[in-house]
Design a protein that fits this description.
Strand order of the largest sheet: 1-28-29-30-31
Largest sheet: 5 strands, mixed
Distance between the termini: 37 Å
Strand content: over 45%
Helix content: under 10%
Number of helices: 1
Length: about 425
């Protein structure tokens, strides 16, 4: 191979790796955007369903994909033992959909939760060698590390967790660190562990002691690596290597579920409860930047015009957010100007993904609304899997992995 082509291959290899795999919550960058060029736009019982596999128990966590393996978590309630369940990790053959192995990580009483939550809502994360999972056991957060053969490597508990709505924040990876968010109705914290050994590397207290369920997003912003999350009555940025807080914005409301996304030099926020807001935030601040770094802000919106649970998505110079009540809002990134609002499904819990010029929005009834990105609203498909869906999709190698309440589906061109 000529030297120029060899160098090009080396430069592109990390991008190709990311394009192949969907390693954690919302994919390679944590923002729902896939590097794939093409996936099916339409599917149904007789079209583009390569396989569907029954998943035992119930869970709203998303599938993650690495190579020829797909990982999902679930909770199977035990017959004859009311209010007790096995928390499960399953490894599935990506090619045929068969279960390669199943592990019961723990058996524990079922915690109190919101009716729209599940006992397995935390999405796993993997680096191709290990897979990490979090569950709640008697108000203790439990973090598990398993290898791809199904052997437990380590287990740690970073501390207690108290919330009337249950547990669901997914772990994320940053270099050698596994990071867990535990905003709660007590002393909240962020904790980072060595991903291979489970040794705790840093811990940061969170303000305001209020439950939230957000997964942080890590982005290169304003010339530095930032880990940004909303929750516990604030929006805050941290150095993921050390846990040091870089900046913070007070409010704009009490509780949060949706992750942020970063595009065109701004972090984009949708929230929440009890008030609904949309906000663009400049990332170059230090300390408390509530009065100085809010680029634009839509305040105290009707519930149908902002999302509490579904995370937003960015494409080009637009942000898109579908509310829990199914209204899709498109905004300009730089100005926050509302471009359009259109109704999709009746109720949405899953977060969307973007592939090429198309956005995919699953609703709770299992219908995925496919919308072409751009300033004009163009819905190109409505694809029904025939069962309810609360989990966000995964995208890998031209395939979409979609979890319904009873099955995991592999969607690809041809049968």
């Amino acid at each position: 191979m000529p030297r120029r082509l060899t160098l090009l291959a080396l430069l592109l290899s990390p991008l190709l790796l990311h394009a192949d795999n969907w390693p954690g919550w919302r994919g390679p960058r944590g923002d729902g955007v896939s590097a794939e060029a093409r996936v099916p736009l339409k599917w149904g019982p007789a079209e583009n369903i390569r396989w569907k596999t029954p998943i035992p128990g119930v869970g709203h966590s998303s599938p993650v994909v690495w190579g020829d393996r797909v990982f999902v978590t679930s909770c199977e309630e035990l017959p004859g033992k009311p209010r007790t369940g096995n928390r499960l990790l399953l490894c599935i053959d990506r090619k045929k959909g068969g279960v390669l192995w199943r592990r019961t990580l723990l058996a524990a009483p079922l915690e109190r939760k919101h009716q729209l939550n599940s006992f397995a809502s935390s999405t796993p994360v993997t680096d191709g060698k290990h897979v990490w999972v979090t569950f709640l056991q008697d108000n203790d957060v439990q973090v598990f590390c398993y290898d791809f053969a199904g052997h437990k490597v380590w287990q740690r508990s970073p501390g207690k967790f108290y919330s009337v709505h249950g547990f669901c924040s997914s772990p994320i990876l940053y270099k050698q660190l596994l990071i867990v968010n535990a905003d709660q109705d007590a002393l909240g914290y962020l904790a980072a562990f060595d991903k291979d050994t489970g040794d705790e590397k840093w811990r940061t207290d969170r303000p305001n002691r209020t439950r939230s369920y957000c997964v942080p997003v890590i982005a290169e912003a304003a010339g530095r690596t930032q880990m940004v999350l909303a929750g516990s009555k604030c929006v805050a940025s941290y150095d993921p290597a050390t846990g040091e807080q870089l900046w913070i914005i007070d409010g704009p409301t009490e509780q949060y579920v949706a992750s942020l996304v970063y595009q065109d030099g701004l972090f984009f926020l949708t929230t929440g409860f009890p008030e609904y807001h949309l906000m663009g935030i400049r990332p170059d601040g230090k300390g408390n930047v509530t009065r100085t770094h809010v680029a634009w802000h839509h305040k105290r919106l009707p519930a149908k015009h902002a999302a509490y649970v579904p995370s937003p998505i960015a494409h080009g110079h637009h942000f898109y957010v579908v509310s829990d009540l199914g209204v899709l809002t498109c905004l300009e990134t730089k100005t926050g100007r509302i471009v359009y609002r259109e109704q999709l499904g009746e109720h949405h819990s899953a977060s969307p993904v973007a592939v090429g010029d198309y956005l995919f929005f699953p609703d709770d009834q299992g219908v995925t609304h496919v919308v072409r990105a751009g300033a004009d609203f163009r819905q190109v498909a409505r694809n029904d899997i025939g069962e309810d869906c609360y989990a966000s999709p995964a995208v890998s190698r031209g395939e979409i992995f979609l979890r319904g309440v009873r099955h995991l589906y592999c969607i690809g061109e041809g049968k």
